[in-house]
Design brief:
Hypp3395 protein, 2 domains, alpha/beta, 29% strand, seven-stranded mixed beta sheet, 401 residues, 24 strands
């Protein structure tokens, strides 16, 4: 906890002189698309010049550099000049656009999804490459969206408090801000990730291991599921996750990730509804294979990842690791800094299984290249570890209700 506070304070310190991008030649840039050409592009990667929409060719999700009068895109494989059309943008003074950005009032990304500057600096700039432009932070590091500074890995582009999120977080019955993405490019598994920094529990001394874990309850609503479901539960602090499934639902595979993995645990139970239709809710014990991972044991696993990396966590690392493992890319990711309850939706919700207990408690960057070699080597280690643990019968299976 203390290291996070120090990073936030460090990020808030004013920097004398903002970092400047290099001044490449015209050969490093291609003209932007404009007008109707940008209609099919994700809104977060479309700006405007004098009221006209501008975007990178082929809706490329990286490299858009704009001023109030000029638009350029960095030359990449996604912006192949053979596919371009001359949009009539001003070819003069290319160096001017490398140190300027679109004014905040012209950005199509909602202001609520952006981070305001602390004075003239931005938190997390060492990780995200954030700098202050017109009162808002803009990011330049790979795998971080320019205007929101949130992670983007493959098809998972994290958004702040998105209505499309698969999960909702609550603390004392109040809805928490979440960071989430929803994707559909995993043909083998349905992988849902819930990430937190901590739950609500007893505090601990500096550099002391936690004595007991905070409890976080997860109520799952299930629709029609056609793939093997893998649930990934991630935290920095120790957490005891209590998973409640609706009747007829099963989550056979759970990945538990925590910095304090020895103090963390999972209990799975199935709701049978109320006794005699009106009495207390009855639960059956459910069984699941729980595999335990920690940054202390496996290289490539981040200490924490909850969707916002401006305070020391590393969601990009988490999504990269999961995508490079046997699970493949995530189907959904939802994170928040602290919570005590999640409501998670799994499967096709047009055919959702009703569950009274749950009701009662009421885009893209280029393929990730960072950590590729680490993920490749770690994946083989994890597969061997799972095979060995299966053969030795060492899976962590909870039998208590």
């Amino acid at each position: 906890m203390y290291w996070r506070i120090l990073l936030l304070l460090f990020g808030a310190v004013s920097i004398l002189g903002q970092p400047q991008f290099p001044s490449p030649s015209d050969d490093d840039y291609v003209p932007c698309w404009s007008g109707d050409q940008c209609d099919a592009c994700p809104s977060g990667f479309v700006g405007s010049v004098n009221g006209e929409s501008r975007c990178c060719p082929n809706c490329a999700r990286q490299g858009l550099i704009m001023s109030p009068t000029v638009c350029r895109c960095r030359r990449t494989d996604a912006t192949n000049p053979e596919d371009q059309q001359n949009t009539g943008t001003d070819p003069q003074q290319p160096n001017a656009v490398t140190t300027q950005a679109l004014a905040a009032t012209e950005v199509t990304v909602p202001t609520v999804e952006r981070t305001r500057c602390f004075g003239t600096s931005c938190p997390g700039f060492l990780t995200t490459g954030a700098r202050c432009v017109d009162g808002f932070c803009e990011c330049s590091s790979e795998n971080y969206q320019r205007y929101t500074c949130l992670p983007v890995v493959g098809s998972c582009a994290i958004r702040r408090s998105s209505p499309a999120a698969q999960a909702e977080a609550f603390l004392s019955s109040e809805r928490r801000e979440t960071f989430s993405c929803v994707a559909d490019d995993n043909n083998q598994y349905e992988v849902h990730v819930l990430g937190v920094y901590e739950g609500v529990g007893p505090s601990r001394g500096f550099q002391q291991d936690p004595i007991e874990a905070a409890e976080i309850k997860v109520y799952i609503t299930a629709g029609r599921v056609s793939k093997h479901v893998i649930l990934v539960l991630s935290s920095y602090e120790a957490v005891h996750w209590v998973i409640t499934l609706p009747k007829g639902m099963a989550v056979p595979s759970i990945i538990l990730i925590a910095h304090y993995i020895d103090q963390s645990d999972v209990t799975v139970r199935i709701s049978r509804g109320r006794a005699f239709g009106f009495g207390p809710v009855i639960y059956d014990t459910a069984y699941a294979i729980v595999t335990r991972w920690s940054d202390r044991l496996i290289q490539g696993i981040p200490a924490c990842a909850y969707g916002n990396d401006d305070g020391g966590c590393d969601t990009v690392k988490m999504l990269t690791f999961i995508g490079g493992s046997f699970m493949g890319p995530v189907s959904s990711f939802t994170g928040t800094y602290r919570t005590e309850r999640w409501n998670l939706r799994i499967g096709n919700m047009s055919t959702a299984i009703p569950d009274k207990t749950t009701a009662m408690v009421t885009r893209s960057a280029p393929v990730v290249t960072r950590m590729t070699s680490m993920v490749t080597s770690t994946t083989s280690i994890v597969k061997r570890m799972i095979t060995m643990r299966h053969a030795q019968g060492r899976y962590n299976v909870r039998t208590d209700g």
